[in-house]
Specification:
Elements lengths: L4 E2 L14 H13 L4 H4 L4 E2 L5 E7 L5 E5 L15 H11 L27 H6 L3 H9 L3 H11 L27 H13 L6 H11 E5 L2 E12 L4 E11 L5 E8 L8 H13 L5
Helix pairs in contact: 3-8
Length: about 280
């Protein structure tokens, strides 16, 4: 039986049911698995999985993995696009190309279509604006061998940076040779934020600050969007990867990817979908 993505739990006597972190995760997992008890079904709507979209969630406390949407897509590899800035930020800090969230790399006066890119941005500003010119410059200051070794250490998808500097560019993460699946994105995030990636804790802390994306009730949302154009369909495809964290440090990691031949599904659209899914479970 095909699993379905759950709707918002109902309210009983006008009062939202408050759940602790484990309770939230168990409810999410059971509802998404298709095991539908009477309590879970009470005033709860079930909506069909959206075509072309997948969201994978994993509990840091060992609560398992939950997939919403088209399950087969969780293991399919796609270009990471700007979600690669999570790893390139850490590589830049580790290699000393940037030294903190306020590092600027200069601006030559080029006028870009994205207004937020036009200036001498800091690392944090460039991360939040998803500034390709800044990260092209950052990555260009790294040694190719170092980048390859780091990606292999992280098991970052296919680790293919074969087009490095091909045709005068090194944006191998945008619609090019580097590919990664939603499941692998979550694996990489877990390594980074569990301390198993080999990066220094202070650098991970800088990255985490750059990734902050607001709150959902008591939980803080961290993540990075990514968008790229599929040249076969001429439609935008999108990512949102990251985690939600409660005040006790409990994390739920996630990776969402969307592609549709009939419409654009960019990174911001995936971010809103993740927020919607989490808001259905987190009592806010």
């Amino acid at each position: 039986m095909r699993r379905r993505c759950p709707g918002k739990p109902g309210e009983r006597n006008g009062t939202c049911r408050r759940l602790n972190a484990v309770g939230i995760w168990l409810l999410l997992a059971v509802a998404m698995s298709g095991c539908r008890s009477a309590a879970l079904l009470e005033r709860e709507s079930i909506v069909p999985p959206p075509a072309g979209k997948v969201a994978l969630f994993r509990d840091s406390a060992g609560g398992g993995t939950v997939i919403c949407g088209e399950h087969a897509l969780a293991g399919r590899r796609f270009p990471p696009c700007s979600t690669f800035k999570i790893v390139s930020t850490l590589m830049g800090l580790d290699a000393g190309v940037v030294t903190g969230s306020g590092t600027r790399l200069g601006y030559e006066g080029t006028r870009y279509e994205v207004a937020a890119w036009n200036g001498d941005l800091t690392l944090e500003e460039a991360f939040r604006a998803s500034c390709v010119p800044y990260y092209r410059k950052l990555t260009g200051k790294l040694e190719r061998e170092y980048v390859g070794d780091t990606l292999r250490r992280l098991d970052y998808g296919n680790c293919d940076i074969g087009v490095w500097n091909s045709n005068g560019h090194n944006v191998f993460w945008i619609d090019s040779s580097l590919l990664i699946s939603p499941g692998e994105q979550v694996d990489v995030l877990e390594k980074i934020f569990s301390g198993a990636s080999g990066f220094r804790p202070e650098h991970v802390a800088i990255l985490k600050s750059c990734m902050e994306n607001g709150r959902i009730g008591e939980w803080t949302l961290y993540g990075k969007t990514g968008s790229g154009r599929n040249h076969n369909t001429d439609r935008l495809e999108g990512w949102f990867v990251g985690f939600a964290e409660d005040p006790a440090g409990h994390r739920i990691f996630f990776a969402a990817h969307g592609a549709d031949s009939d419409r654009n599904l960019d990174g911001p659209a995936m971010r809103e979908w993740i927020r919607e899914l989490l808001e259905r479970r987190f009592d806010g």
